[in-house]
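Justification of resources, computational component.

The compute hours requested in this renewal are based largely on the per-chain cost of generating structure records like the one below. Each record pairs the submitted sequence with a full structure-token output. That output is archived, and it is also reused by downstream analysis tasks.
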Amino acid sequence: MADIIQLLPDHVANQIAAGEVVQRPASAVKELLENAMDAQAGRIKLIVKDSGKTLIQVIDDGMGMSTTDARFCFERHATSKIKTAEDLFRLHTKGFRGEALASIAAVAQVELTTKQAESEVGTKIHIEGSKILRQEPTVAPKGTSVAVRRLFFNIPARRQFLKSDPVEFRHIIDEFHRIALTHPDTAFQLFHNDNELFNLPVSNLRQRIVNVFGGRTNEKLAPLNEETDLVGISGFVGKPEFAKRSKAEQFFFVNQRYIRNPYLHHAVMSAYDGLIKEGTQPSYFIYLNIDPASIDINIHPTKTEIKFENEQALYAILRASVKHSLGQFSAAAVLDFDRDQTLDVQYEQLKKTPSLPKIEVDADFNPFDNSKGFEQSRTSFKNTQPVWGSLYMGMESKSNNPLTEELEIDLESEEVTGSMFSQEAEKSNPTEYFQVREKYIMCMVKSGMLLIDQNRAHQRILYEDFLGKLSEEKTASQQLLFPITPDFSHGEVGLLSELREHLEHAGFCFSKFNQNGVEITGIPVLLSPEKTTAILQNLIEDLEYQIPDSYFSAIDLLAKKLSKSIAIKHGQSLNQKEQQQIIDSLFACKEPKLTPENKTVFIQLGWDEIDKKFN
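The structure output for this chain reads:
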């Protein structure tokens, strides 16, 4: 029988390795930025076109490479970071695997230009699909420039499975944030389609976080600093009042390397227990400095997961550190509760002897006497209480009996609470429909009764109305006297820009819409200005990793979000006319049984089913 095992050609092996290293354009961005940092760069420029599908270029002013190293760095398992297997457990660098550039070159057209400070000229190399086309000397500044063009040009199937440009660019932004947040002593720039999105100067860590996520982030941060024999913890945690539904601003860094760790995340969340609303997430930027020999970073191909030698102790230290930070900066509850200062006794009053209160009794008072003397005694008694007497000034009695006069005042202020339904419902016909617990509308039909959730019913009504108007671009807008300026970060504004056209069709008007901020001068008619920022924030959070790929899904998402935010809430009282309008509008919808999120709007109880309950 013939031999069937054979060695794979180098270009095939490189493409297989690229499947692990280069999953999308953001993967190439990560590898190139890490290499630039390991080259001791002081300034790094990232240039991206078409969300990395056309061009990814990283330019740095680092140490550069020699002519031999420039060619050798594209070979598999070629690295300057490790020499022995033991070095894998003492790593302080980032790009160390020796497969990044080889994998990128296997699935793209790569141009490398590099020059060392002591060299007179640099080196330029052109590679396409792992094949070196040419290498030549060139004039270049100190540092390295790597340009990756037409990613996955030779693997159409891989390119076909890439997401839309907004989604892929969002992943690139995430990788850029992770590198920029670990190196505030390095300047970064990011250009997308010739537009400068980020220009981060050299700064301290707090300034870097503010520059990345917006100017108002500064007031949201509480410092975190703890030193132990096991780990050093530093960074910032978000104050509880600024918690959001999104997990976008949650970062763990171990030895300046971004990681994901659900166990450590749980430690942070447990520190916020009782401080934030259910379903919301705090922001945190936590940096762990730990002995490299006590961690293993080789358990995941992307190196974003780490195994710790003593996880339980780390969990306890992290939880205690976050709780201490929140308590220290008055972000957490304390045992000394606020007291009522009106109950405090002044110091000089403590030395005085307390005096007994005087009690005045009108011996001539007779409630059954209508004589003149009684009137005088009653008047004199009122004069001893000028504060209470002033409450009844100007009120005339319908009776000459003063006792009856006082009783009438009390009787008129009482409400009759014995009725099962409101007076307005009784005046109309309560057998047709009425509100129950200010949450449901009960409607009588021939076959039984319907119990309608007023919030969900209104969601369905508004959703179909918005969907139709957004499709026809006919939604009315109300102009604002004072513009609204929400506090959105660069990344959030970028996400919102993907739906700007649909937002304008929905009734929003923008006087400013760029990476520096958003200014709103008009909103949909049914929307209140107080809810505008919250609605847009929720929309951004929904868009983070599910940006719509088509026109319909974009307006559908916007219609769902607007209808859910504007719909009447549970606990809102409705009169008969409003109840009837909701019922009529609901059953005029195409799908009255379900909300836009496929939740039940109403339930039906037949008379037979009701009768069985009494058997």
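Residues 332-344, 377-431 have pLDDT under 50 and may be disordered. The longest strand covers residues 131-138.
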